[in-house]
Design brief:
binds alpha-D-glucopyranuronic acid; 329 residues; single chain; 4-stranded mixed sheet; alpha/beta; 50% helix; D-Maltodextrin-Binding Protein, domain 2; 11 strands; 2 domains
């Protein structure tokens, strides 16, 4: 009797092992691009999302995360997503608003009073409206990731907004971003993220602007050790899926379409936590590496905001209404 029982137990174990083996071959593999590297909050959050999706689809859908721009720069990934070569990606709002001009409103300098204000907006109706609004170009926004606030950093000391005059500053490949920087009297040069370090080293540019984690992660602090912490932009990141990929997901199981959105949103909360830790760590690393931080005084902040006023004055009525709603949130 004991022998029979033992055989039965072994058979049951073999059966479950085989089933596990079966589900380890996904029915659908989605390729996900990110231009940041392993360890960066957006990449770690994407891996977390991939785990959730794998677990909750019983292994039927696998998201393969390709970091470090291995699938191309953000602009190239955007084109590949529109034409169906890449299924999912994480984009900076700065890249997206060049393709989706309506997003420009969310990129206005000094739009939010602080991070909590931005999250009230993005977690609410306005944030949802923008995530949904990109589907006419074949893409759907699933969730927001944090990317903190962007400030200037330069090879030479800058002590006030007037020190920016005449400097050549790298910006993302985004015309409105160029215009913003030019309103401060600086010359804007559009360069892909991965080429900024070499542009600083070869003295092609005097400085750039980005958040602290990117500044340190990409070693820009080694080449441009003066950080002028004016926090002019708060540009979140967007996790996106192509409409084509969504259809493929639907074909596996229609319920998985919402499931992927939920996992993306959950990974968004995880990323925000990682982001806060990474901001602190990056600050400490920057200080240790000898970076000189300048926090603009009240007068300087007023001068910065005044210089950027034309961007608000040029908005159409619809955009002005959104800015008003953001202010009231
Ligand atoms: C941030 C963002 C990147 C973007 C970069 C840039 O670091 O996370 O996706 O490419 O800004 O300034 O280009």
């Amino acid at each position: 009797m004991r022998k029979v029982l033992l055989v039965a137990v072994v058979l049951v174990c073999v059966f479950f092992a085989c089933r596990k083996e079966e589900t380890s071959h996904p029915e659908l593999v989605l390729r996900y691009a990110d231009n940041q590297g392993h360890g960066y909050p957006t990449v770690e959050a994407a891996k977390y999302m991939a785990e959730l999706v794998k677990e909750r689809t019983g292994g039927k859908i696998e998201i393969r995360v390709y970091p470090d721009s291995v699938l191309g720069s953000e602009n190239s990934v955007m084109e590949q997503m529109v034409y169906g070569g890449i299924d999912m990606s994480r984009f900076s709002l700065g890249t997206l608003s060049q393709f989706f001009p309506e997003l420009w409103t969310l990129q206005l300098p000094y739009l939010y009073t602080d991070s909590a204000h931005m999250w009230r907006v993005l977690d609410g109706e306005i944030g949802d409206m923008y995530l949904q609004g990109m589907s006419d170009k074949g893409l759907v926004g699933l969730a927001w990731y944090d990317a903190g606030a962007r400030s200037f950093y330069t090879r030479m000391p800058i002590s006030s907004v007037s020190s920016l005059r005449g400097l050549t500053i790298r910006v993302q490949e985004n015309d409105m971003m160029s215009r913003t920087i030019e309103l401060l009297g600086a010359k804007a040069v559009q360069i892909p993220y991965g080429d900024v370090y070499s542009a600083l080293q070869k003295l092609r540019i005097d400085g750039a602007e980005n958040n602290l984690p990117s500044y340190v992660f990409m070693d820009h602090n080694q080449a441009a050790p003066y950080f002028y912490q004016d926090e002019h932009f708060r540009l979140p990141e967007v996790v996106m899926i192509s409409n084509d990929a969504r259809k493929k997901v639907e074909a596996v199981d229609p319920a998985f379409v919402n499931l992927i959105t939920e996992c993306a949103k959950e990974s968004g909360f995880y990323e925000r936590k990682l982001w806060q830790e990474e901001e602190k760590r990056a600050y400490e690393e920057a200080v240790q590496s000898g970076v000189k931080f300048t926090i603009p005084g009240e007068d300087d902040m007023l001068a910065l905001k005044k210089a950027m006023e034309p961007l608000y004055q040029e908005l159409g009525p619809k955009e002005q209404d959104i800015v008003q709603r953001i202010g009231d949130t």
